[in-house]
Write a structure and sequence with these properties.
- The chain has helices at 54-62, 88-91, 96-104, 116-127, 146-158, 162-172, 176-187, 222-230, 247-250, 252-262, and strands spanning 8-16, 21-29, 38-41, 66-69, 109-114, 132-138, 208-213, 235-240.
- The chain is α/β, with parallel strands linked by helices and 267 residues long.
- Helix 1 runs parallel beside helix 10.
- The longest helix is centred in the middle third of the chain and has 13 residues, at 146-158.
Length: 267
């Protein structure tokens, strides 16, 4: 995949969310064959730039407009005003996502979230059920699992190396320490331990594709299985062998094929 795909128009913009500016990038295929756009929600350390070339390839493969934004506190968006609250997964549907949706005038949409962005995409699909045409989760956590905690504790040790923090700062600037605390501090907090998607999943009525790596270091296949079991709409659960936490980077062609097939009948 290459970033500068000639068949795409790429637009960058900033929107006021009410709590700060959000950075948004949109990929437009020259010959869009489907009307409903895909909105990407990034992971705990993610940003628009860290999706790399995947959004461009996704736009071409599906013939759809693809929209990605940096959540408040991440990437090129403004700093978050304070400490991230522990209901941040649910809150994103009515904060950043709603602001982007309003500013772009989106009606029907497809929510696609990676990792914690998958949990946020679930809340978006439930909160705007009448307009969510489909939901795609990739490596989403549905509850706090021992494997999730172990993976984050391992990452915490990794980020004691200043070089790793410097690498993160290339994408988040001086917000990098906040980004780390928002991830590690939130998930390792005893107050966050009871968190799950169980209550919101039955409110999702659209078609669902739950993708997950069999060797995901942050969650076992119990997560997509729970998503598929508890949603009210038709669900497809696909566990990818020999794959860890970032399938769209590890096996991009495979992910693109699965997503395009799933969305084939969505207008």
């Amino acid at each position: 995949m290459t970033r500068n795909v000639p068949r795409l128009d790429i637009q960058d913009r900033w929107f006021d969310s009410g709590s700060g500016r959000l950075y948004v990038r949109t990929w437009f295929p020259e010959s869009a064959v489907k009307a409903t756009p895909i909105v990407l929600l990034h992971d705990s350390l993610g940003s628009v730039e860290l999706w790399r070339d995947f959004p461009a390839a996704l736009s071409i493969q599906t013939g759809r407009r693809v929209i990605a934004y940096d959540r408040l506190g991440f990437g090129r968006s403004d700093a978050y005003p304070g400490k991230l609250p522990l209901d941040f997964v649910a809150r994103e549907a009515d904060s950043g996502f709603e602001a982007v949706r309003r500013q772009l005038g989106l009606g029907s949409f497809i929510a696609f979230g990676h990792s914690v962005g998958g949990g946020m995409a679930v809340h978006c699909a439930a909160r705007f059920a009448a307009d969510c045409a489909a939901l795609i989760t990739e490596s989403a956590q549905a509850f706090v699992e021992d494997r999730t905690i172990a993976g984050i504790e391992t990452a915490r040790e990794l980020f004691t190396d200043p070089a790793q923090v410097d690498r993160l700062a290339r994408y988040h600037g001086d917000k990098a320490p906040w980004v780390l605390d928002a991830w590690i501090g939130s998930w390792l907090s005893p107050a966050f331990a009871p968190w799950s998607l169980d209550a919101v999943l039955p409110q999702v009525h659209c078609p669902v594709l739950a993708l997950h790596g069999a060797e995901d270091e942050y969650g076992s296949p119990r997560h997509p299985e729970r998503i598929g079991r508890l949603v009210s709409g038709p669900a497809r659960v696909e566990v990818m062998p020999a794959t860890r936490h970032v399938p769209h980077r590890e096996r991009p062609a495979d992910v693109l094929e699965r997503v395009a097939d799933f969305l084939r009948d969505i207008p």
